[in-house]
Amino acid sequence: MTSQGYRSLDTTTIDMDEIPLLIIGKTGNGKSSLGNAILRNAIPGKPKFQVSTSMASETTRMSQAAGSVFGKQIKVIDTPDLVNLDLSDAEIYEQVSHWKLHAVGKFAILLAVRCDVRYTAEEYDIYRKMKRAWGDNSFTNHLVVVFTFGDRQDRDIHEELKTVCWELRSVLADAGNRYVLFNNRDLDSGPQVLQLLDIVDSIVPPPSPPSPYLIAFVLLLVIFIIALWFGLPWNYELKTPVFFVIFVMILVGTIGFVYRRRLVNYINFAMLM
């Protein structure tokens, strides 16, 4: 693993070359330790995130740090357990909206779940509140379950997951069965970090739905063509080439509208040549 430095971030900064990893979960599930394990080899020395040694949460506000891990610029965002902080629903929505500012480009939401204790209905309720506060499908599209305290796992995790409670099965289904076992105490965290980054790389968000304006535009054009075909007293020989030209124009216009941003980039690049 190569090290190219580390920096702490106190303000919200957006770098499209960075891969944001947003760590969420219940108090005591090892979120801060997970963040430290991911960035452990970015630079030696003091841990980036404070870890609590009691049942009380050490993380009371969002904190972040970044470093180069396996040649990738990784930004880790450690978040508090908003339910444990006794926040109202409105305050939870406000906090999650700040988290979403980091959800740009290729990102992942890492849900820390302890593998050595039973997954409870209370923990599932915390997960559902964060999912509801996020507000859209990008939450589950980028979700990865990270089972922490892997040093205490004495059974095959894949086999054990076949017998877990329905709440945890529901979470794994939301995540598209993306999960990884993490030993936060392992000083050589490289292999498990690499496995996690491979999972993050495999995340392919679904394509955005077509714009309603585009759909309305195409429907109006179709109606217009049908009206012309049946409404004008043209003979067949004249209609065919005319409507073929119209069809090609619609097709080219639609493709240009869908890929308009990419076309603008190509034009700008050509002007710089």
Structure, described:
With 273 residues, the chain is an alpha/beta fold. 44% of the residues lie in helices and 15% in strands. The chain contains ten helices and seven strands. The chain has helices spanning 31-38, 89-100, 121-134, 138-141, 157-160, 166-174, 190-202, 212-231, 236-258, 260-272, and strands spanning 6-9, 19-25, 63-69, 72-78, 108-114, 143-148, 179-181. Helix 2 packs across helix 3 (121-134) and helix 8 (212-231) runs antiparallel to helix 9 (236-258).
Any descriptors?
273 residues, alpha/beta, single chain
Task: Break the fold down into its secondary structure elements and pairings.
Blueprint lengths: L5 E4 L9 E7 L5 H8 L24 E7 L2 E7 L10 H12 L7 E7 L6 H14 L3 H4 L1 E6 L8 H4 L5 H9 L4 E3 L8 H13 L9 H20 L4 H23 L1 H13 L1
Parallel strand pairs: 2-4, 2-5, 5-6, 6-7
Antiparallel strand pairs: 1-3, 3-4
Helix pairs in contact: 2-3, 8-9
